[in-house]
Amino acid sequence: MLDLGLLLTLYPPPRRGAMNTADQTAIRVRGLRKSYKDLHVLRGVDLDVARGSIVALLGSNGAGKTTMVRILATLLKPDGGTASVNGYDVVAEPERVRESISLTGQFAAVDAILTGRENLVMIAKLRQVAEPRTVADALLERFGLADAAGRRVSTYSGGMRRRLDIAMSLIGDPAVIYLDEPTTGLDPEGRLEVWQVVQDLADGGTTVLLTTQYLDEAEKLADRIAILHEGAIITSGTLAELRELLPPAKVEYVERQPTLEEIFLSIVGGKATSGSEEERR
Amino acid sequence: MSARTYSGTGVMLGRSLRHITRSMDTVITVTVMPIAMMLLFVYVFGGAIEAGTGDYANYLMPGILLIAIASGVAYTSYRLYNDLQSGIFERFHSMPIARSAALWGHVLTSVVSNAISVALIVLVGLLVGFRSSAGPLAWLAVAGILVLFTLALTWIAVIAGLSASSPDGASAFSYPIVFLPFVSSAFVPTDTMPAPVAAFAEHQPVTSIVDTIRDLFAQRPVGNDIWIALAWCTGVLVVAYAIATAVYRRKIA
Lengths: 281, 253
What we know:
The complex is a heterodimer. Helix content of chain A is 35%, strand content 23%. By secondary structure, chain A is of the alpha/beta class. Chain A has a 6-stranded mixed β-sheet, with helices on both faces. In chain A, strands 2-1-4-5 form a 4-stranded antiparallel β-sheet, covered by helices on one side. Chain B has one domain (3-252). Chain B has helices spanning 3-22, 24-45, 56-72, 74-86, 88-93, 100-127, 136-163, 167-172, 174-179, 195-203, 205-217, 225-252. Chain B is elongated, with a radius of gyration of 19 Å. In chain B, 43% of the residues are buried. The model of chain B has no long low-confidence stretch (mean pLDDT 88).
């Protein structure tokens, strides 16, 4: 992984004016602060996420990504600043915010003792959607979990758990979905599966705020990338805009070796979309 | 509570009841220990204990039931602790459902699972000579007191589950509670104990509860004991509930 600190010392971010996109903004964060005793995790974060876009919050471990997501998910109260989601303030109208969002946390929040189908039906009932069973079956099909639907989640692989986790987050069609490090701890195949799901989500018009410490993940998925470093967003923009921060590209001839990931995937024959591959084996 | 709280609690109850039916070993563990103790006291110690009644199994039953409940609630804090660790509580808390629903699901599950183990123990009790002439009303009163006792201990278990930092710590709180019946009128009359011990035994909650249930089973008048028992259970319940909800609120901000 690139060293963010070094990168930013070499190329300090330009000053950016505040955006003004009132109705098109799904998430609006201004001057958000949060400290744990003497540890200042967030020191004035500003962030805008446009409706229907994928924004990656990129940062090293301990940069404050999870704290930020927990505040936006009403699990944690900020010390200062404001944050609104879908037009609702996270402190003043948490109930409204919860109706607008879904959280897929860092560790798959699934019930290992229940089956995949039972997990989905449970969330559907809690969200009081009509016909919980039909909703569950449709999601099982969509996420390639239909064959494993009746099995306890404790028998699932990491990738399957993560897919179930994300499927659970889609119930009730929330306007905004937070994915906190969705691919951490997954094998390369599981990672590609999750990437496909995130892409499909955004294609369907859902706003996605994604946190990640993997640069390639942000590069691959995000419409905009915000870099969180030492408690503040030090730069944000599209990949192209971020590229402009660096000196123009030089043409160099480099012999291209296949990456280990490419070798691994070609040997085991994994594909990004082969959803039910794992269950059959 | 709103309609949303009720429906949310119903779903949560269904969820953790499934946990119990899929790990019946937890119910069995909770049931086997008191049954073993019952057999031990009836067939080994019972002959030597002068309890002043004809049938020692009858004398013993209320205390055994309380021990079963005291060890049974430990699983509630264990399950609660696991939920907090696994992240599923964060999912529930970020959803538009009443936040108390997640706790109530565990509490009601505790009542159901303890009712199952109490029923099993009474059945085994019948095999070793437990008999009661109590009518439906007295049985109902016994059930009511046991449910109140379970609720009171369960909310203590909730405090433990919420504040524990390890799964062992989550269930350790129940050891002293399991021990309380031994220093009460559950196994021997308190007047056989040295004065200071007897004083403690007579003024701790278990004795009044045991005496009440024993009188109800035997169709004797219950006297003041029932009010002392109810006062203890309700008092502990109210205090534990208040502390548990305060801890919960601080925990989930």
